[in-house]
Design brief:
- It is a single chain.
- By secondary structure, the protein is α/β, with parallel strands linked by helices.
- 39% of the residues lie in helices and 19% in strands.
- It has a seven-stranded mixed sheet, with helices on both faces.
- Helix 1 runs parallel beside helix 4.
- The chain starts with a strand and ends with a strand.
- The mean pLDDT is 89.
């Protein structure tokens, strides 16, 4: 049994939670690893009910509550603020225009983040024989991505557009479908 199940997350431009809930209920993992929770670990009732976390991760409240109800450890596998410095945060919010230097720095940070994701996933693989669900941005699950190269045999589930291409940006789609494959 390969214990890793990756779920592609669109970061909110579709209802990602519906599929996450379905997969979590189906596989009953010991750990759910989430990029969106950044560097936060929610390991007990007190953590899951902490108003600071619920406010900071408002978009993740349904996931936090589900994992709490199912007694599943919820682990952030990214850096605080995704490693973005103040300027990068402004670029993401489209408050400032990106320069060539910024583009290079974003690429360096993306590589650093991916290495961090891989390291933490490997850590949790060693801690359990049960399933592990990894919720990560669809972009990280594109063909030839580092995650796919490092975790052969894992199950990957992601939303696709009308021509079955992985959904990495908002698009007009009549009906959301998910593609499930063994990597």
């Amino acid at each position: 049994m390969n214990q890793l199940i990756f779920i592609g997350d669109t970061h909110g431009f579709i209802d990602d939670f519906k599929k996450q809930k379905e997969i979590i209920e189906k596989y009953k993992p010991e750990f759910v690893l989430s990029e969106q929770l950044q560097d936060v670990y929610l390991l007990n009732k007190k953590d899951c009910q902490n108003k600071i976390y619920l406010k900071r991760f408002k978009e993740q409240n349904k996931l936090i509550r589900l994992c709490h109800q199912k007694n599943i450890n919820l682990i952030g596998i990214d850096f605080k603020n995704f490693g973005f410095n103040k300027r990068q945060q402004k670029i993401v919010l489209r408050e400032v225009k990106q320069t060539r230097k910024d583009f290079i720095n974003f690429n360096k940070l993306t590589n650093k983040r991916t290495k961090h994701h891989i390291s933490l996933i490997n850590k949790y693989i060693k801690l359990t024989k049960k399933y592990i669900v990894v919720i990560i941005g669809c972009w990280h699950l594109k063909e030839n991505s580092s995650l796919r190269k490092n975790f052969k045999g894992s199950t990957i589930i992601f939303p696709v557009d009308n021509i079955n291409q992985i959904l990495v940006e908002p698009k007009e789609i009549k009906r959301i479908k998910y593609l499930e494959l063994i990597n």
